[in-house]
Amino acid sequence: MENFTLIISRSLSKKRTPLFTFLLVFIFSSFTVYADFGPGVDTDGDGVFDHVDIDDDNDGIIDTVEGNGDFDKDGIPNSLDIDSDNDGILDNVEAQLSVGYIAPSGIDSDGNGLDDAYEETPGSCGGLTPIDTDGDTRKDYLDIDSDNDGILDNVEAQPTNEFTAPCGMDSAPKNGLDDHYEDYCGTGQGITPVDTDGDSLPDFRDIDSDDDGIIDNIEAQNTDDYIAPKGKDANCDGLDDAYQSCPGLGLTPVDTDGDKKPDFRDIDSDNDGIIDNIEAQGGNAIVHPCTFDTDGNGLDDAYETTPGSGEGIIPTNSDSDSNPDFRDIDADNDGIPDNVEGQTTDGYIAPSGNDSDMDGLDDAYEGSGDEGITPNNHDGEDTPDYIDLDSDNDSVPDNNEGNDFNFDGEPDQTFTGVDTDGDGLDDGYEGSDVNDGFDVNDEINDPANDLPDTDGTEDVNYRDLDDDGDGINTPDEDADGDGDPTNDDTDGDGTPDYLDPTDDRKDTDGDGVPDAVDLDDDNDGILDTVEDPNLDNDNDPLTDPLDTDGDGIPNHLDIDADNDGIPDNVEGQTTDGYIAPSGNDSDMDGLDDAYEGSGDEGITPNNHDGEDTPDYIDLDSDNDSVPDNNEGNDFNFDGEPDQTFTGVDTDGDGLDDGYEGSDVNDGFDVNDEINDPANDLPDTDGTEDVNYRDLDDDGDGINTPDEDADGDGDPTNDDTDGDGTPDYLDPTDDRKDTDGDGVPDAVDLDDDNDGILDTVEDPNLDNDNDPLTDPLDTDGDGIPNHLDIDADNDGIPDNVEGQTTDGYIAPSGNDSDMDGLDDAYEGSGDEGITPNNHDGEDTPDYIDLDSDNDSVPDNNEGNDFNFDGEPDQTFTGVDTDGDGLDDGYEGSDVNDGFDVNDEINDPANDLPDTDGTEDVNYRDLDDDGDGINTPDEDADGNGDPTNDDTDGDGTPDYLDPTDDRKDTDGDGVPDAVDLDDDNDGILDTVEDPNLDNDNDPLTDPLDTDGDGIPNHLDIDADNDGIPDNVEGQTTDGYIAPSGNDSDMDGLDDAYEGSGDEGITPNNHDGEDTPDYIDLDSDNDSVPDNNEGNDFNFDGEPDQTFTGVDTDGDGLDDGYEGSDVNDGFDVNDEINDPANDLPDTDGTEDVNYRDLDDDGDGINTPDEDADGDGDPTNDDTDGDGTPDYLDPTDNTPGTDTDGDGVPDTVDLDDDNDGILDTVEDENIDGDNDPLTNPADTDGDGIPNHLDIDADDDGIPDNVEAQTTAGYIAPNNDDAATYLANDGVNSAYLGGLTPNNHDGEDTPDYIDLDSDNDSVPDNNEGNDFDFDGVPDQQYTTIDTDGDGLDDGYEGSDVNDGFDVNDEINDPANDLPDTDGTEDVNYRDLDDDGDGINTPDEDADGDGDPTNDDTDGDGTPDYLDNMDDSTPDEDAVVVMQMVTPNSDGKNDFLWIDNVDLVPNNSLKIYNRWGIAIFEANGYNNINNVFDGKSKGRSTVRAGEVLPSGVYYYIFNYEQNGKDNTDSGYLYVSK
């Protein structure tokens, strides 16, 4: 029995105690406890004595975890203390996650003292694994600040308004829990932790208890005095040293608004109705909670950089005072409380002063649930009003407008810099009481009436863009333009203009509407906002306006903004749709009623030419090269304006005096007497429009710019007929007509009458859409294409070349609409000929020197009538009639003018056509119709087919269908048109890779074997002796040539497919190239020229290369059949490759396509015994047949495990069931265990050949499988092994090696498979359980199987006995406790509930040398290493199940018969006795779960299930004893 002195009075009663009192008690209290740790003690009263009870205090944490320390220094060891850190929260609660908490069941089936709720299965002895919320290595049940926020768990676990400080007492029966947290002493309820934000994470584990995004550590402290955590905990109590000013003190949480809800639990810390989450983030880019908390720390993921980083929101302090916004009732220091600015004026709701749900948010702002005020943003820009210094964006700050009650432009209440009550509202703005605390609306209960409002309309001044309601926005009343409207008082009456609706203002156009509010300051009908381009982006024409004509008068004040003498009012509208001003302005907005439209529309400025700018600021509105100030003022049509610019503007309206009417000082006469522009302005032709908007002023069909005869860009100085009227105003002047059709070129659509429009013949290089300027001259003869009837000088008129030969239409000679285009080519209307492009490349035929792209120019083919390759008509360089057609090509009359088809009325018959098919020669790719295109008849390859005459008959080949041509394969189809020149069935286009990109195998062809014969002419393109026709096809699918070619295209009918398909070359190995050009088609290291010619299977070809090819077919004479001069015999008598070519095994394929030529299951490359890369020289059994062709060679190579399957093909070389590919780490990346294999135990035997790869004496076959699921190998014969590739039939597919401890490596290469500090070679070989292995490593391995002789069974030379007689590991290997698993896989070898590493008494890391009771058996193998309990001990069993099953039907007390002088009392949770008895005897005086005392349950009825408290007094050996504790009644 030990006593501990109590310093403070025991008489402290259970009552609510202020927080500071709690802190003092918590810090300075010590306790008096009485502890008896003898062998008969049962602390938790569960019927299991402490010395065998693995959980003495029944908190679910096993004693070995809790240890014997006394963390809270209350005199009760942690293992007996149900509240080890004295925070009022039970260890059972703190040790578990809040979500998924498991309450104790009250049942202990296996009697080990651990509640079944905390064991996976009864007896597994797991217990709770205590959690560590803040990761400070101090488990929560030993951590007084589990979430590391500086606030003690005892504080966070309780409601603020019901906080109970600890009393410092723990009365008998002592359980380690402060009496203040128990209904009655010993009942052990503890605090039920509070979860403020309902996120399933109680506050003491939640770093953001109110879910506002601001972490508790910040909210719990004053802003100015904030102390950051140090990250150190010197006394290891779980509380950061920064908060250890007194041991265990912690933070005293701040309550800013004094609502008894500390800030860390208050979602509106300053009570202004705007929730902290919003205020802490500032006005913009609010990040709302995502509602996810991935790391479970209580802080919403939205406020962490990554889950677990725990930053939270860094609170905004908009006004930079001592209070961040969430603690500041005036966050922008403008004197208007946030509660007022946060709401609209009309919708304002004052705080109710109530907070029903005690979350810190006034009920008035709860909404549907914790909504709070959504901050109003009156101007819709920048930030919400409560942090916006100018809420209406009117240039007058809120601290002025919200405090200027006498409307003089100066605030009556100003900022002092003093805040007496610290609420964030400056004393200068406080009401009658500057120390009223958090009076969040500061007596402003009706903002609409309590705040300044000059005009009484719209809103109060700080939210009114037009404070005085005069229709002029406050920023526009800044007369001096300094950005401050408060200092502008136009009428000097002491009231600034923005607050004075009657101040005087400028009115430019004198319409009675001041410019500041006048939509049209110059009354021209065009809105000021249109006339000002808003260069300064302020949407105000009064600032930085545009002045187009640079006369010093901005456009919006100028009635002639471009100074052309035509008023903007006139130019702004169309001539026909012109509306004169009415002179009325009904709505007094400054815009004449005539232009109101549907409402303040104004004139939409006309842009006549659709380019650059509208007419009213366009100096040439019709883009005709004559400026508006000329055309609009030239009334006598002489090309000179009658009214000109003077530079004087008497009335300042922007219209120069030179253009004014009768009165130069008539003010803003916006149309200057032009009431009918159509008649009041010059109009030469009276059509289309007045001259300044008419592109053809004189109506002669020639646009004004085209009447600029001298081309100087000024049509006003051009008078062709010298009559004093410039051409553009004179419809009768003379003009040029090139083709003499009576239509001047200026308006002629087809100046040369060839049917091709001038706009087509001119590429418009100068972008003026005018063929008359900078035209194209393709043939360089000085005559532009649009005036040239033979634009490419080839002797064929453009009219002919422009059309197809068959569709040719001759000109009619008529032009009904006199537009210069012959009626024959009008189409649906002025269409003209669409030039033909016969070859579909480069340019149309009429400017293409070779229209059919056949290498013979048009000037030859179109003029060679005797078909000798020379033109009969040639170019002379003379053009008598100047029509562009050279005299050499003219017909009978060289001076016939524009005879556009030059007597070619029927091109199909009038022009040369050798074959009379397809088209005339200049458009025929095969002129002679022999099936060979003209370019392919260029025999000498010089690019000119005209000089090639193969048969010497005087007619070049391209015009001679009967010339001789090369036919390589002699099939009657010339190579030039033969699809398969060598008749091997593979198309020439396949055999030629088209390196020269001309798609012609005849030029620059491929020659794979370098024999001088290109592949497409070579029947054996790789010189391997196997014809391409055979190699190009699969062996099984081979089709011999038919010898027929029905369509005479050179491709044998057998290979036509659906049409000219040919053979698709086979690629047997799927690599590199197709077989017909692959020297080793099966990639087996033996070349095709060997395998395809080795008929006696000796590894040497019977037919070899000679270098001679008598018949020139590409197949060497050495490989030819009976006739070396048989020509293109494309399969060389191989009609059945499957039988005609060597095939050793007769399976799979013939040898040159068989990877395993002899069919012995070993691929040919693997039969290269000497490893020199050549299998042909390896003959293991010396029988003259190399191994790769010999399925019966006597020594098939090494067979390590002797199962009849050589290692080279054996998937499991050591027969242990683990595949070689698993046992080899493949360090060399070749996927071959035979090379560079792993050797874990370093015994020189690689793992895949070693049946004990870690040398621990337990065979890999055993370690690779679980003990319970072990399967022994089957007794397979050689045939079975061979069929299964060397894998025992018990393990088909291979074993997946077991990794028992789930760490490092699988058991078969793990020296300690259960990670219990005792190696496998000990635990697997210690049969007498003395901690020393009975079989030990000797370094000798007689049979070389990798299992050391020391571990072998009865026969050390038994070869590959892969389980070494261990057929049943569960029984054949040591297992001390017979539970869980055998010892080498059992973390608790002796089953005493203590893991082997924890039985290392001397702490040297080796449990084998620890024998506490000295009985010769180390503790980890001895479940009775401690002394046994006293046989006479009296023990109350603490469990009653009154269900008549014969088990625990009444309360059993061991040895009660030895202590007849006894008494038993049992109490319920309220301290009421429900059972009392003297002389309890386990016979007829027993507690059977029924009430026998005063109770809520009537006597004789079974009590409710639950925990009850007992006190058992008895006399034994002359001493009085008391046993007390809990018992559990369960129905």
From TrEMBL:
The residue ranges flagged as biased composition, category Low complexity, are 398-419, 628-649, 858-879, 1088-1109, 1185-1199
Write down the SUPFAM superfamilies for this protein, in alphabetical order.
TSP type-3 repeat
Q: Region annotation Disordered: residue ranges?
A: 180-202, 297-1261, 1288-1428
Q: Which InterPro entries match?
A: TSP_type-3_rpt
Where in the sequence does UniProt note compositional bias of the Acidic residues kind? 356-369, 382-395, 420-430, 465-494, 517-550, 586-599, 612-625, 650-660, 695-724, 747-780, 816-829, 842-855, 880-890, 925-954, 977-1010, 1046-1059, 1072-1085, 1110-1120, 1155-1184, 1200-1231, 1304-1331, 1342-1352, 1387-1428
Molecular function terms from GO:
calcium ion binding
One Pfam family per UniProt? CHU_C
What is the protein name for this chain?
Thrombospondin type 3 repeat-containing protein
